[in-house]
Amino acid sequence: MRTCLLSLLVLVNALAWPAYAEVRLGNEVLAASGFKALRGKRVGLITNPSGVNRNLESTIDVLHSAPGVQLVALFGPEHGIYGDVPAGDKIQSRTDERTGLPVHSLYGATRKPSPEMLKGLDALLYDLQDTGCRSYTYISTMGLAMEACGEAGVEFIVLDRPNPLGGLRVEGPLLEEAFRSFVSQWEVPYVYGMTCGEVARMINGEGWIKKPCRLTVVPMKGWKRRMVWSDTGLPWVPASPHVPHGESPLFQVASGMLGEIGGISTGIGYTLPFQCIAGPGIRPQDLAAALNAHNLPGIRFKPITYKPYYGAFKDEVIGGVQIFFTDPARAPLTAVNFYALETLKKTAGLDLFDQAIKAKKSFAMFDKVNGTDATRKALQAGTSATEIVAGWAPGEQAFRKQRQKYLIY
Known about the structure:
By secondary structure, this protein is an alpha/beta fold. It folds into two domains: 215 residues, Rossmann fold, CATH 3.40.50.12170; 125 residues, Aspartate Aminotransferase, domain 1. Helices cover 34% and strands 13% of the residues. The strands form two sheets. It has a seven-stranded mixed beta sheet with strand order 3-4-2-1-5-6-7, with helices on both faces. It has a three-stranded antiparallel beta sheet with strand order 8-10-9. α5 packs across α6 and α8 packs antiparallel against α12. It starts with a helix and ends in a 6-residue tail after the last helix. The N terminus is likely disordered.
């Protein structure tokens, strides 16, 4: 009887707790090998607070203290190596007080490592957690660093990490050459469904940089393409100030484009960054009902009222909706931006484009993030969100085929 009870308890516990796969990050695979790929090399490291292992040990600290590893320089992307710089703010190169190593800024005077920065290096490592969204600047930093390494004859090593949106989701408009920028650097859809190591292989293989580099990808173990971040069992360290949780990349994709137009709050300046669509004069119940009527799979909108503590609506009570993902794997993330634009106009009489024109705001960043101005022009002409989203399908399908040979998992 006792044995049966114990067996029942074990079964209940197994059902009650999620069975996470053992995902080993590229930095953990590197450490388990005794840092074999770094032996005899003087190395630099591109990283920030998200560059940690499952024990929350910084890759900076691990490499700095590892026997036989010569870590001689650090490189900081947008937000800096300690994530303490606001979005868009320029960063100066300096000396790191903790390690005494030089810190070269890749978000200041240059966004591509200079020959002087790479002088004396045999290899440059990359360990950054991105969000799986083209406009998030870390893969732009990665590719430009690859180009610099190719020109300087320096090996580029990617310590691979999960795509928090999974490896199956491909969404959104492709990049048009006229709109190439640091927030749309590579010819991938807005959501590309690849790990940073796979993107690096594609950048190198497709000739997207002037000179291919000598590329090494240290792959993960145990990661599957169907996994979103919550399936990995790994801790999430904020990749940047407004991406604080493992599910934050979902929201960033769903409302990030809206934030580039202005005129509404996406929860930045409140406690729910990217999780809201709200503004003055909006009736929360009406907007929630109208958005839910679209029946977008895996998404629900709940009425909300709040008072931002900074930003355009500081100390103003505003209303709108909070976004909830009931089934993240099925939710069409990028589409939310455009259904919201359409619904705000119809339900709340709020035309964000018209409002921006009257305020003499530029649409340059919105177009750059989209990688095209076709989306904006279609919306302004009254094209429905359903038509716009359907129009991405041929490009998405072509990209799936194009990326196939670069996939690792």
